[in-house]
Amino acid sequence: NPTKLHLKMLSTTLLLKSTELEKTGLIEKDEEVTLYKIRHRASGQLYTLTVLHGSHNESIWRNFRQEFGIIQGLDHPNVLKCYEISAQNDGIHVLSESIASKSLRGSHIADECSLSDLTRQVLEALYHLHQRKIVHGEIRPSRIFLASTKLGCVKIVYFGRILQLLRPSEERHLHPERTNSLDGFAGDLWSLGLCI
Fold it and tell me: Per residue in 137-157, pLDDT tens?
């Protein structure tokens, strides 16, 4: 089934038409997001389509357009690169670079060297965000992906505040730094420690 990506869209330079794309598989699904493998028919180029579930209106869409400008400006090998967004009936759709495997949710990495390398890469991604005064705010295993099927390049997924906007009534996973003070940077590190 071709994806529908052009109800309302913001883009970098891709501007892919929905008829040019096809879903080739499900990567992962939970109550907040669903990730699909997407292939560009003509070129064979692979992408990931993330559907951020929740109801949205024009106000939420306007807020996310602002967030997406920040997200587009992130350029780091360990931060998932997002290309296009669109507002659809089932939520916000985000087209990004390809992720080959599921998140680390439910995973156990027994090898200490591999775990150390994964941690280093996530810390480098967080450093990139923090240097730009951006707090991730939702570091957890379901936001950490491997770019390929074997342990190698790690990608963190950052959607800004859109999940809070789409699902405002849900209780979010809050670290002590977020509930007791304004230091979200330390909270990102605290959350990574929980993941490890």
Answer: 889 898 999 876 555 789 998
Instruction: Give the residue from 147, 68, 142, 62 showing the smallest Cα distance to 107.
Output: 142
State how far the Cα of 104 lies from the Cα of 148, in Å rounded to an integer. Answer: 13
What's the helix, strand, coil split of the chain in %, to 5? 30, 25, 40
Closest by CA position to 76, among listed 134, 141, 13, 1: 134
Q: What is the pLDDT of residues 6-48, one digit of tens each?
A: 334 444 445 566 678 899 999 999 888 899 999 999 899 999 9
User: How is residue 16 written in tokens?
Assistant: 């892919």
Q: Residue 145, CB half-sphere, CA atoms under 13 Å: how many?
A: 23
Tokens matching residue 90: 């089932």
Rounded-to-integer distance, Cα 174 and Cα 179, Å: 7
Structure tokens at 4: 């529908």
Token code pair at residue 20: 């040019």
Tokens of 3: 């994806």
Does this model's pTM top 0.90? My answer is no
Q: Can you list the positions of beta strands (E) in the chain? A: 9-11, 21-29, 33-40, 46-53, 82-88, 91-97, 144-146, 154-156
Q: Is residue 193's pLDDT more than 50?
A: yes
